[in-house]
TrEMBL record:
Name of the protein in question: Uncharacterized protein
Tyrosine-protein phosphatase domain: residues covered: 1-65
Provenance organism: Pinctada imbricata
Family annotation (Pfam families): Y_phosphatase
Molecular function in Gene Ontology: protein tyrosine phosphatase activity
Tyrosine specific protein phosphatases domain ranges (all copies): 1-56
Length: 115
């Protein structure tokens, strides 16, 4: 069980609850309906996901959660992997972390263009 609180219990908490719900929906249904999810949640708490930044984060976290399925790392290897991807790729000038994000974005866009 996870307990999550922010100062008012609506903005950040609502964002996390929506993310959890939508990740499960995506896994089970093969699609997500963000607007419907927020409409349903806001019937219980009117200001769930309060800011544009939280709304953007919800989309970015969904992008990561729904598209990066094969990027798992053993927990014991995670610190070394994270140190490695924080480094800049001399060829691109970006960190490997930024490149990984770009790949996740391209994967997301590619999947949506195929529909």
């Amino acid at each position: 069980m996870i307990y999550l609180l922010c100062s008012a219990g609506i903005g950040r908490t609502g964002t996390y609850i929506a993310l959890d719900y939508l990740l499960r929906e995506g896994e089970q249904e093969g699609s997500v309906d963000i607007v419907n999810c927020l409409t349903t949640l806001r019937r219980q708490r009117t200001q769930f996901v309060q800011t544009v930044e939280q709304y953007k984060f919800l989309h970015e976290a969904l992008l990561e959660g729904l598209t990066m399925k094969d990027s798992s790392v053993d927990t014991k290897d995670f610190p070394a992997m994270y140190d490695k991807i924080k480094r800049k790729n001399p060829k691109s000038g970006k960190t490997f972390l930024e490149e990984q994000f770009d790949v996740s974005l391209i994967t997301y866009i590619g999947r949506n263009n195929m529909r």
